[in-house]
# Entry
Amino acid sequence: MLKNIEPSKIYSITSKAPKYVFYIFLIILSIGLLEALILSPKDYIQSHSVRIMYVHVPSAWLSLGIFSVIGILSIIILIFKNKNLSLITKSLAPSGFVFSIIALVTGSIWGKPTWGSWWAWDPRIVSMLILGLFYLMYLISWRIFENKSYASNVTSIIAIFGMINLPIIKYSVVWWNTLHQPASVNLLSGSSIHHSMLVPLAIMTAAFALFSILIFLMKYNTELIKIKNKGLNRL
Amino acid sequence: MVGKKVKLRIIFLSTFLILLILSLFLILKSLEDEIVYFITPTEIKDLTELDKKKIRVGGMVKEGSIKANSENINFIITDFKNEITVSFTGAIPNLFAEGKGVVAEGVLRDRNYLISKKILAKHDENYIPPEVKEALENK
# Structure
């Protein structure tokens, strides 16, 4: 599976993509920011601080989503010893890490005016911090281990460990009493966010997702160039 | 089609995952009292013994219960089954209001009275523009 694809062939496609992704990202981001900061209404109780949501929630969603992808791919990597896939997981991690940090920082900034505290030892917040630390561990272990196949194994195991944390983040607000409010958006039962606020949220999520794809492609291309320079025509 | 080694790795990983989930479940289950951010007034009624440890109580601020004087603010936290009176001194978060969620941190004097120096406002998952909220209330 995917084992005999030549890096140079993939590279001929992925090297052109970032430019286009970047332009689409810029357009979507400007529309999203315009909607989020100016056009969308304030909240009846939180007033303008509700606007932090348009950065906080997409970041949190994406950091969880990216880690899920890394975790699932890691299982396949360990079972089929597929090195092509480990290039993908390695390139996905940086943007996921950045988004987990953004979610924590914006959450803190949002917590002060609404809850009255920068930080709380709340299950949702702590499990999100653990996700950030897993990302950090994952990224560092790619640098620590010189032997590529060994690094691929270790990072995959870290990703699988970290994946167990994802349902805890998602359901922490359901299982325990938390300061953090329960989920507002549910794919099955609709959302408790008014549609005038849901639109900017969706656009910002799309913009952040495009940013992740952009960073992923740039990182992935770098990895492919590294392989090319070593004179290998396949992994 | 699937090699023997691959099969073994699948079995190994599945066992590993099941073990991981089970052990984590047991740990979280046994630590439940430590993980929750606050307890409810009903849970305080059911406490077997009171100690001088700091606890957090959460629930709704009862309508019409906030009474402020020069030194402190008194209000009632309710979970619609039981209530607890809170005596609070300190800065109030912006979203603190009657009928809204709150978490008060402090020491219990008895099962019905909490002396608190820190309160946090809890907010719900609803996000509504002010005009829409007004329209909803007028219905």
About this structure: Chain B touches chain A at residues 6, 9-10, 13, 16-17, 20-21, 24, 28, 32, 35-40, 58, 91-97, 100, 103, 119-134 (CB under 8 Å). Chain B has a mean pLDDT of 88.
